[in-house]
Amino acid sequence: MSSSRRSELIERARAAFQERFGPEPEAVGVAPGRVELLGNHTDYNEGFVLTAAIDRGIAIAGCPSEAPRARVASTDKPNTVTFDPSAPQKGDAESDWADYVKGVVDQLNKAGANVGGFDAVLTSDVPMGAGVSSSAALLVSTAQFLLTLYPNLLSLDAMALAKLARRAENEFVGAPVGLLDQFSSVFGREGHALFLDCRSLQWRAVALPTSKARILIADSGVKHALAAGGGYAERRAQCEAGAAWFRENVDKGVKTLRDVTPTMLEENAPRLDPILEKRARHIVYENVRVEMGAAALESGNVAAFGEMMSNTHESIRRFFENSAPEVDALVEIAQGHDGVFGAKLSGGGWGGAAVILHRPDVTESLSAALNEGYRARYGRDPLLIETEAAQGAEALRSA
After folding, report:
1. 355, pLDDT greater than 70
2. Would you say residue 176 has pLDDT above 90?
3. Which of residues 176 and 120 earns the better pLDDT score?
4. How far apart are alpha carbons 235 and 175 in whole angstroms?
5. How far apart are CA 366 and CA 356, in angstroms?
6. Which of 68, 119, 139, 345 could form a disulfide with 165 if both were Cys (CB 3.0 to 4.6 A apart)?
């Protein structure tokens, strides 16, 4: 996140806490959302991803409480959620947004931290359900907040923090996501994309120069909810079934689709169940595209990188079938505009947003074309977010 935008978000969280609870907050955690540039659904297949934190996120501010209860509020929600931090329970539909906070508390408790009572307010400038991982921003900002509020609770390095946030989303919230989102929110680096090997967890920063290319996120307005199903769990199960088929019939060393090479896929495609073949085809070649895309960026070839993005969306649409007509329309409009390097779905799918990489001089005309084209098809404007690769999460404590 840019320093000015982050400072503004932090101050909004501080002010909201004082308005809701009275005292000045003692700690603030802030974390960005992310945009998936390449690597759609490859993370839980132990493959490769190329991602970037964005300059939109969530800040949560608060104080410890002597009472053995936690109270959490959001500037976007009318209700304050109260729960027992020693034994958090999932909430109903009106308060399920707080399950992400509860999930982090649950994981900290399981790690031996024994979180005490606290009051907190969160505020956000990242759109919810748009495929830019507001959930990871909430999880990571909460973890940063609590570990700063109670500095003697637990010592975690950055990767351990990302893993804890992922476990909270997997085990408590119930969304079977990989590590991509939480990793991006924790490790984001200004002006850089992040290449992550989801098996070894080795990563490197790859320059994404704003002088050559800018990021525009076009939110379709179709919300997705990974924890509620939406096809995500089904796709993960299909990938696991595909890997199991290769392990049983081709190579016992296959653990996930990460281990299936293009040659193995092509030689055995006729024998595979047609649905599993399509899912495997996307994952196998998406891993290739991520590696080629990272190499293209490292050599300064933004055009080649953009082509990889567009190829990914075609694979998403044809083989993984996790896009939505509204997102497809945004991608199609963007790809037909002069100065656009590439466009694709960002995130889990079944709604959400398109990420568009374009020349800096066409932002205005591209935005106009997206508004006009989307309005003509769906009778409403998309939410357009001009963003850039930004810094990852941090925490602050009042003196």
Report:
1. yes
2. no
3. 120
4. 12
5. 10
6. 139
Looking at the structure, do residues 225 and 171 belong to the same domain, yes or no? no
Res 230: pLDDT:
61
Structure tokens of 232? Answer: 């995500």
Residue 361 pLDDT more than 90? yes
**Residue reference for tokens 């591209």:** 366
Co-location of 60 and 190 in the same domain: yes
Q: 256-311: per-residue pLDDT in tens?
A: 999 999 999 999 999 999 999 999 999 999 999 999 999 999 999 999 999 999 99
DSSP string, 298-363: HTT-HHHHHHHHHHHHHHIIIII----HHHHHHHHHHHTSTTEEEEEEESS-SS-EEEEEE-GGGH
Same domain as 184, residue 90: yes
Catalytic annotation present for 181: yes
Question: Can you tell me which residue has the tokens 């290739």?
Answer: 288
Angle at 332 between CA 327 and CA 334, to 5 degrees: 95
Residue 127 pLDDT more than 80?
no
Same domain, 22 and 159: yes
* 236 and 269 housed in the same domain: yes
Residue 324 belongs to domain spanning? 214-387
Type and span of the H or E element at 375: helix 363-378
Query: Annotated catalytic residue: which of 43, 55, 106, 181?
Result: 181
Which SS3 state, helix, strand or coil, does residue 89 take? Answer: coil
Residue 229 has pLDDT above 60, yes or no: no
